[in-house]
Automatic annotation (TrEMBL), chain B:
UniProt gene name: tsaB
GO molecular function, one term: tRNA N(6)-L-threonylcarbamoyladenine synthase activity
Organism, scientific name: Mumia xiangluensis
Full protein name: tRNA (Adenosine(37)-N6)-threonylcarbamoyltransferase complex dimerization subunit type 1 TsaB
Domain Gcp-like: 33-139
The protein's Enzyme Commission number: 2.3.1.234
Highest classification ranks of the organism: Bacteria, Bacillati, Actinomycetota, Actinomycetes, Propionibacteriales
Superkingdom in the source lineage: Bacteria
Length: 349, 218
């Protein structure tokens, strides 16, 4: 009865990527992703309604591409998994409705799963079974979370998260201040390579003695963004030209310094010898550098999935779905709702 | 022939199953919203009530609005996915046409009329119909007062939008929301005007292009 490597189709539509992935246990068979990022550029950020409209148009093409890429039909899968939260409600509902239609059409069990936990579980496709416990730092335009994973199918805790902007959002906002296009992450990363990260002493949010008691693993980037804005305005008032590379490098170091320091601190405090990095910002070169350096000093193994698996995709949803089916976890019901603020402790809805 | 019909363009979630000659089963959750939660179970329910097998579906039809966007997408993505998965024919129909067809068959109108539904934000979605229920032109969105000014004062207006704005529109009693049973019958009879399954949003997304830069200090 037990199935060590269940074949699962996963659907992701929580933000601006429409993903359909197919996974057999820890083996990746297909990862079809359509992104509406280009449509959000002129708005300087993801517009939920624009993203939702794009999901509706992209879903069936991605479903067909995933089946063709994998050489597998939905008729063959053991289950359908779909992100049911957290994320944008209207966007989530497109994927959820589609998943239900597949579950009905093929008479398959349906799993509404947690997007954040899927970001951790996707590493199984690259590096195999997750050691337990594993810490995870998830950083994207929508999330900044520090998790402790005792068991990816049953026990995940939130150690900390941003109390204001997500890290990726801070990159977008600072990029705009510097006249760089959206999305800001890759732009800042590139500009910073020619800059001096010590040129401007930007604040490190929530790292003072008192904050480290109350917000030991939490993050804050809103004050940092304002500090960059004040710096830029001050320089302009003084009639000085702004060094975009220096500001980018100094800002980026402030973000990556705090993210990596708190993450390694959390690993040490909780005896986690392994760390998974996920989310779009995991592609940032400086963040990788800081995390790898500090983790290595602390004797922590860092697992970073390839970029296509770090950003939102359906394979990560399928990976978690497959782990849940293998563990015999009960499926969700057909009245599964979208849960925009699904807590990380809830792995299946 | 086994037709599954869905409409989620109104607050109601409406589902029906039709065998080409009669409606076999229908479920309607009036005014409930929550289309995302209600639609899947409603589909399973009509199949079970009729004792029908999903694999025998030959046609899937969906009301493509106009209507509130989130619910509309739930119905359309469901219909598209079911049709492609079950290799059934897919039919998209304007949801206002469904209300019009029911008004004609119920005999509540005998002249040219308008169907108006709730577009929220104090507006209505509307379209004009001939006495026999054929749509004249495209569906549109308007403020009730502006619509009233455009129409001959005697032209009857029916539907949820007419019920809501009876103070401004020449409201006549009639069906309020699209009924999937009527939609299924229209497809069965070959009388539905098929327009594909692109949603009739009729409004652009609410968003303004980013300003050049926001200032941090006053």
């Amino acid at each position: 009865m037990s199935n060590a490597a269940p074949l699962v189709l996963g659907i992701e539509s929580s933000c601006d990527e429409t993903g359909v992935g197919i996974v057999r246990g820890t083996e990746l068979l297909a990862n079809a992703v359509a992104s509406s990022v280009e449509e959000h550029v002129r708005f300087g950020g993801v517009v939920p309604e624009v993203a939702s409209r794009a999901h509706l148009e992209a879903f069936v093409p991605m479903l067909e591409k995933a089946q063709a890429d994998a050489g597998v039909s939905v008729a063959d899968v053991d289950a359908i998994a779909v992100t049911s939260g957290p994320g944008l409600t209207g966007a989530l509902l497109v994927g959820i409705a589609a998943a239900k239609a597949l579950a009905i059409a093929y008479d398959k069990p349906l799993y509404g799963i947690n997007h954040l936990v899927a970001h951790v579980c996707v590493d199984r496709l690259e590096h195999g079974e997750l050691p337990e416990p594993t810490a995870a730092l998830l950083v994207s335009g929508g999330h900044t979370n520090l998790l402790l994973v005792d068991d990816v199918t049953s026990s995940v805790r939130m150690l900390g998260e941003t109390i204001d902007d997500a890290a990726g959002e801070a990159f977008d906002k600072v990029a705009r201040l510097l006249g760089l296009p959206y999305p800001g992450g890759p732009q800042i990363d590139r500009a910073a390579r020619d800059g001096d990260p010590t040129a401007i002493a930007f604040p490190r949010g929530l790292t003072s003695g008192r904050d480290m008691e109350k917000h030991r693993y939490d993050f804050s980037f809103s004050g940092l963004k304002s500090a960059v804005a004040r710096h830029v305005e001050h320089e302009e008032r003084m009639g000085r030209e702004i060094s975009v590379p220096d500001v980018a490098a100094s800002f980026q170091d402030a973000v990556c310094d705090v993210l990596s320091a708190k993450t390694v601190r959390a690993c040490l405090d909780h005896g986690a010898k392994h760390l998974v990095l996920g989310g779009g910002v995991a592609a940032n070169q400086r963040l990788r550098h800081f995390v790898l350096e500090r983790a290595s000093e602390a004797g922590i193994e860092v697992r970073i999935p390839p970029p296509v698996l770090c950003t939102d995709n359906g394979a990560m949803v399928a990976a978690l779905g497959s782990a849940l089916v293998a563990k015999g976890v009960a499926p969700s019901s057909l009245d599964l709702p979208a849960d925009s603020s699904m807590p990380v402790t809830q792995i299946v809805a | 022939m086994l037709i599954l019909a869905l409409d989620t363009a109104a607050p109601a979630t409406s589902v029906a199953l039709h065998d080409g000659s009669a409606v076999l089963a229908a479920v309607s959750h009036a005014g409930a919203m929550s289309h995302g939660e209600l639609l899947g179970p409603a589909i399973v329910q009509v199949l079970a009530t009729a004792g029908a097998d999903r694999r025998d579906l030959t046609d899937v039809t969906v009301g493509v609005g106009p209507g509130p966007f989130t619910g509309l997408r739930v119905g359309i993505v469901t219909a598209r996915t079911l049709a492609v998965s079950l290799r059934a024919r897919l039919h998209g129909v304007c949801s206002l046409d469904v209300v019009a067809a029911q008004a004609v068959s119920d005999g509540v109108v005998d002249e040219a009329f308008v169907v108006a539904t709730d577009a929220r934000r104090k507006e209505v979605y509307w379209a004009e119909y001939t006495p026999s229920g054929e749509r004249v032109g495209d569906a549109d969105v308007a403020r009730p007062a502006d619509l009233a000014q455009r129409l001959p004062g005697t032209m009857p207006v029916l539907g949820r939008g007419a019920d809501l704005y009876a103070d401004v529109l020449n409201r006549v009693a009639g069906p309020a929301d699209p009924d999937a049973a009527v939609l299924a019958s229209m497809v069965a009879a070959g009388s539905a005007l098929e327009i594909g399954t692109e949603p009739l949003y009729l409004r652009r997304p609410d968003a303004t292009p980013a300003a050049q830069r926001k200032r941090a200090s006053a």
